[in-house]
Queue: 4 jobs
Job 1
Amino acid sequence: MRQPARDILSHSFGAALLAGIAVLACSPSKTKQPVETTKESGKSVSPSGVSADRRGTTLIRVVNALPDKKHIDIAADTRVLFSNVGYQDVTDFQELRDNVTRFTVRRNGRDSVLAENREVVGDGARYTLVALPEAKGGILLRVLRDELVTDPAKTKLRVINAAAGMDNVDVLMKGEKDPLFSNVDSGIEAGYKEVTPATTTLVFKAQSGRPLEVENVKLEPGRAYTIVLTGALGHKVDAVRFDDRLVRSGTQVSMRP
């Protein structure tokens, strides 16, 4: 007898869920320190992974990389987590209790869903949700797991290409021959890479069009940097920057609610 399609789908999702939970259970211990995030709008501090894990929560933030420049809401199942997120905004972290969640993108104040992503997330872990344009004119919602630098002498960098139509992007430090990242297509996260601390100019070279140069990029030890390319090929392309670092013992911080 042929198994009903809905049963097959249910079985497939259940298997994926169990696999996701197994991976999360085997992941490294969460850091004990709070995390300070620096972005264009200022600094904020979020709870440690250990404290969030004890409360059974996941830490979530959002980047709006939709070049139509309209504000969006992000909901987790039926609850709006982030409201009125503007173009190129990077929100503060919020805590989410559910481990299996249907994230949705909506226009600010509206109910219709523009994009969705059903994900398994882990207690105490950190995730960045990126709303970005799809090649065929639609909208994607990527759910990306964040990393931190636990060795204060090291630096990490990741690049997220959210610029529509800007494919095969190489990322280089100006003056260097070998790229840090190669062939990063639109909609792709290049992952984290350890880099040498420096103040440098980063060059983003696509298959076509003029390279984008971002000057005076400070890559300091102990920080994990994220650069999100926004805009579209043939139009203005920008680089949204933010970084995360562990708050060391003895540092006075003000925790945002």
Job 2
Amino acid sequence: MWQPGFPMRAGRQVLLMWMPVPGAREYQIRRRDLGTGEVKVWRTPNPQYVDSDAPPDRSFLYVVEALLPDGRPGPSSDPKRVEGFRPLEPPRWGGHYQSGRTVQLVWEPVEEAVFYNLYRAEEGHPPALLASVQDLKYVDAGVEPGKTYVYTVRAVDAQSRESRDSEPLTVRVRSAGRGVGVGRYVRVVLEPLVEIRQGAGYRLREPTDVEWSQGVLFVTDLGSRSVLVLDPEGDFLYRFAEAPADYPGVWGIPWGIDVSPDGDRVAVTFLRSARIRVFSRDGGLLEDWEVARPRGFEESPGVPQPMDVAWGPDGNLWVTDYTYAQVVRIAPGGREVDRIGRPRPADTPGPFGTPTFITANPDTGQVFVVDSLAARVFVLDSSGAVVTQWAGSGSERGRLDLPKGICVGRDGDVLVVDGIRSTLQGFSPEGALRSVYHASDGADFFGAGGVVSVAQDPRSGDIFLLSKVDSALHRFRVLRTEPAER
């Protein structure tokens, strides 16, 4: 009979102990590998044995048999199975961002993990253990601006066995901007060309977003619940993204939009729906998938509300989720890659409060997220780390009260419209004011109230401003650029 608790694993060893059999001369231990079928046999005069070559990832079946003084077999034990160790899954990153001189890290739970080991490597140095925590987050307050750090995290079980490394997370620490200030900038004078409200086959009714791609405009329109495709003069080409009559669930209303860098695919978010849909350029539905609730919020009554979407140069989509105040990065086919920001209503949500519009620079991979009610713009690198953030200045020039639509201009500057002030201004990626746009009569106001989105034709430089209040799309030509008055 086996002693209670045996056989027992101890790393690469299996400890075997059994009750002695009166009159036994010795014992024979038989081990069968349940994966390969290989059998090994040992003999010992004592009622115990250490199997010192038992790989922890393999399962075995042990039987002990007593041998009598004349060599005949005596009683044998019941077969006892020893399971191989199943390594814990490596953790997945759940969110990360920089705030001042700290890096805040969040990862997802791993089943059977009792704590986590967080490792950090600096450039030119091997990884070192930074902390062992039972929580799913950590604030690294020991970073220095200008340095690059690589983080990995491992799950640890009750026997202190670690999982493999998570995917590496690279963070370059930069100083967060507090405001753009007002330095040197230029005045860009615009000449109105076309005011687009309606035409043969369509009428704009509360348009919400606009994108330029290869000579045409894609406009999401709340009133018609569709995406309208127009030429620069406002002539109607076609429409798509309307709810199919036989769609089995809630379709929603087209809201945010972006066109892939190659112009072949169009991604659309839908108001009153957690769905993201990808269409071909001519409007055929290619993909239809749902943004999930964050890990730990599966039972929450809050339904994710994707607001806007941006294509990264790697083919991934960046989506702002207004409900949980996160940015979600999604691979083709709908597989979630990671999430940036701690979801509300967690105890310490952040850094986003009300993420709305989003755009990406196809050349640098930087992603720009508008937090409308906080009047801030967050800048993410291609890995999803928040590298800086900036707000409008307190002066009239560069001021942001309710930033909304955003796009990367043809010169690499970030164009931002303000929904309250109805202004258009250009900023460097770091948040420095570079340009203020004016109508040809000198006014900041463009004759359009409630401006919500902006797009630029990279060939001609023409600017398109979308007014939800006026249900109009305004096209302007750059008339001249002149030094700003001091």
Job 3
Amino acid sequence: MSESPPTAARSPGPASRVLVSLATYNEVENLRPLVLSIRETVPEAHVLVIDDASPDGTAGVAEELTRELDGVFLIQRPGKQGLGTAVVRAMQYAIDNGYDYYVNMDADFSHPPRFIPALLAGMAGVDVMIGSRYVPGGGVEGEFGFRRKFMSTGINMYARLLLGLRTRDNSGSFRCYRVSKLRRIDFSWIRSKGYSFMEEILFWCRAVGCTFDETPILFENRRRGYSKLDSGEAVKALTIMLGLGVDRALGRLPVGKV
């Protein structure tokens, strides 16, 4: 099924203001309850599913939801193209269709929808609101093994060191962005296709003058299925951050001083 334009987004009003996107790959068991939970928590939000040809039938569930619920849309891509490219596609969709706020979250319930209102409330004063595990009140529920904790801590440390970020949770993807600020970013600048996108997009948001804040969330283990994050993605993230950091230090970026 091709994507359907959100007709309500053409006219002003609360229903046109917020887009929540879910990048999916093999989330057939999680998708329906997650979309229903999002709509229950934030009834005015639209939901965009971007599925990378999941072999488990995730796109079929998404198609059913587009028929059953107003304001739910689907983009199907022909293969697995990476989390970063999916989020860029969703950001461009938010820009093209006149949304005010764009919320990104994982599709496996590790980001509970009950925290979306806090993200949106924080947008009154900033351009990017991060759902953070690493500020007071935030944390991780359930099992969070040493390897994952080590990767997360290391990546966040390098993001602050190399990219000049001051926020604490730079690797998590549960965030809200002001769409008018996203318009200022040339997406051709972005080097990341996978999970390293999460650090890189904050770097470019900072480059175009975004302000940031963090609100505490509790990160939960996925309810069903398996994690796609591995040590290879961590290595890619560090490599891309190193390259950006070097170019930043040498003044070789396409924007002003970052």
Job 4
Amino acid sequence: MTRRPPVSPAAGGRALTLALALSVLTVQQARAGLFDDDEARRQIRESSQKTNDRLDTVAKGQIELANQIQSLREENARLRGQVETLTYELESARKRQQDFYVDLDGRLRKLEPRVAGSADARPAATAEEGKGAAPESSKKPVNIPVSDPVAENREYEAALNLFRANKFKESAAAFDAFAKAHPDSGLTPSAHYWQGNAYYSLHDCRRSIDAHRQLVGKWPTHTKAPDGLLNIGVCQQQLGDSKAARGTYEAVLAKYPESSAASTARQRLKK
């Protein structure tokens, strides 16, 4: 029977020390591994929290942006409605003003004298009378054109009806034809006035000024002359000639101080 050699006390002590050292090392490694797992979990949790916070911030921003867009849409719709309302009211006011002037024109025409005959023929007759009395048999008949008030009124009304129907181009042409065909008619000043208004409605301020100047220059005492001069100033202002417009408004105040056109001119001078 083989016997093991006896183990010395020193060798046994070294073995025990080695075993204890291995045990301590194993425990430390286990603790280190556990610590690394906890740290990784903590970092994951923090990263997840930060990500959630960012997502919440982005979501809130998107909601606020959507609310702002909706508010802007509502405001835009409200403003569009106001513009449509103001446009309708402006067009209605313009139509009422147009109807008022047309009605006023009809009333004034009943009071305006009708000129019969040519202006060139009358001075000739006067000069002939100043030469002395001549025998009736020696006098030659003078061909004096006689106007037809009914025909004139019919032509004038046709042009005015075109204006009422907002056919401004056709109306301007009709009034121009009337003025050329009947230069001495009592309706010719009014024809120039409405011709100027028709051109103004066509946004042709230069031709509107020309038409109104025909009225103001030839018939300065006509009932429509103050408004015609005022319209010249309005057109000059729209053409960007503020200096000329101001001079025209001041002329309205000087020539027609009691007219409604003077009141409007005074208001425009204050602006």
